[in-house]
Design a protein that fits this description.
single chain; 19 residues; 84% helix
Length: 19
Amino acid sequence: DGLIAEIKGLVRRHPESLD
């Protein structure tokens, strides 16, 4: 889904944010 792809992109840009 596009939504999941967007979230994955955000995680890739800011992986520390999820931590």
